[in-house]
Amino acid sequence: MDFSRHIKPLTGEIDWPMWKRKIRDLLDYHEGAIEGIDGKLKKPVSIDADAQESVRKQHKERCDFYRKANSYAKSMIASTVTDAVYQKIMDKETAFEAWESLRKQFEATSKDQLFKICTEFFAFSWVPGEDISTHIAKLRSIWNELNNGLEAREESKLPDLMLVCKILHILPCQFETSKSSWMLLAKDDKKSFEELTVQLCMFERNFTKVEDSSRKAQEALIATKSERPKQEGKYKSKSRKEDSCNYCKRKGHWDKNPNSEFVSTPTECLLKVNDDVVLYGSRNVNGSLLKANFEPILPKEMIEVHTVIADSSLLQLYHERWGHQDKRHIRNMLEKELGIHIKLDKELCEPCIYGKAHRLSFGTGEKASEPGELISADVCGPFDESFQKKKYLVVFKDSFTKFRYGYLIKRSQK
Predict the structure, then answer these.
(1) What is the rounded CA–CA span in Å between residue 386 and residue 127?
(2) Distance between CA atoms of 8 and 19, rounded to whole angstroms?
(3) Which parts form a coiled-coil structure per UniProt (predicted)?
(4) Hey, which end of the chain has fewer CB within 10 Å, N or C?
(5) Which 3-state string (H, E, C) describes the chain?
């Protein structure tokens, strides 16, 4: 089984702490792999050709053991890093050299690293959507790194009281009851980190679920009261042949299980296609721009594609995309910014012509100054026939007096 597929590829300094722990747990599966990257397992020194048979046999066993452990460790490291990171260690012959190269590149000096871990510990805050055990595990990991750094510098470790106070400080408002009861009821000798972890996990498991269920019941009750009355009559569903799929936008089928999935968390996001991660992004806990890690997908069969070349229509295309600016300005921008050289054409742009056009004034008409000077007429119909077989109406209007008179007629000649 390939366990390396379950480890997110190493992209840079941000992923190094988590990646280092996961890869060490993976290498512990093979005998001698951990000792190989730590430098404790070294390549056996060559022996003389006239050595005894038992000595040569033991030397061969040690060489085989070192070769298998080194090969396994180096292959696991190479398969769990991106191509950009692998280029930095591709010239290393042993797993120890590759590990030390990664550690020097992504691990800061002891002083800078200790300062960074200390800052990360005090800046740690509650992330909505994660349970209490996840927050405690992350905070405990940072705490262990901080104490290990202090121990490496031969300084005294921090007391567990600081870790307990930090956990109590980041708890949200729904844990206020548990925090108060723990501070009042627990004895001083029992106020340990383990006891606090047990009580918080028990409180989240028993009480927060009851609050969530009661809140959902209230929301359901409100939604039921505000429900609209059902419409009478039967609902006629659309035919599958006439409906379109929400995934591929084609008609004739409904795809309920698309082959792609996008997963997002406060610290990372990834795009899966056929259960394979093709796009991955990560960022810090406090929030920033996602650092993307692209992995190209090569098709099984090579296909021919058409390439875009500069022609006369390209200038018109950028002219439309860039808000119908002057084509001479568009040509200069293409040459300076994109390196595309294109000739200036004289093609007319229809939207530009309509945009620059203006409407002429309609003018004023002459009005009548006395009765009978201007009379307008109009014919309406046909209507239903009257008793006199008439179905049209002709109307005469005097423009000065606004007087109207209508006559019923049998037929209309236009």
Answers:
(1) 84
(2) 7
(3) none
(4) C
(5) CCHHHHCCCECCCCCHHHHHHHHHHHHCCCCCHHHHHHCCCCCCCCCCCCCCHHHHHHHHHHHHHHHHHHHHHHHHHHHCECHHHHCCCCCCCCHHHHHHHHHHHHCCCHHHHHHHHHHHHHHCCCCCCCCHHHHHHHHHHHHHHHHHHHHHCCCCCCCHHHHHHHHHHHCCHHHHHHHHHHHHHCCHHHCCHHHHHHHHHHHHHHHHHHHHHHHHHHHHHHHHHCCCCCCCCCCCCCCCCCCECCCCCCECCCCCCCCEEEEECCCEEEEEECCEEEEEEECCCCCCCCEEEECCCCCCCCCCCCCCCCCHHHHHHHHHHCCCCCHHHHHHHHHHHHCCCCCCCCCCCHHHHHHHCCCCCCCCCCCCCCCCCCEEEEEECCCCCCCCCCCEEEEEEECCCCCEEEEEECCCCC
Enter the tokens of residue 243.
């409906």
* pLDDT, tens only, 217-232: 555 555 555 555 555 5
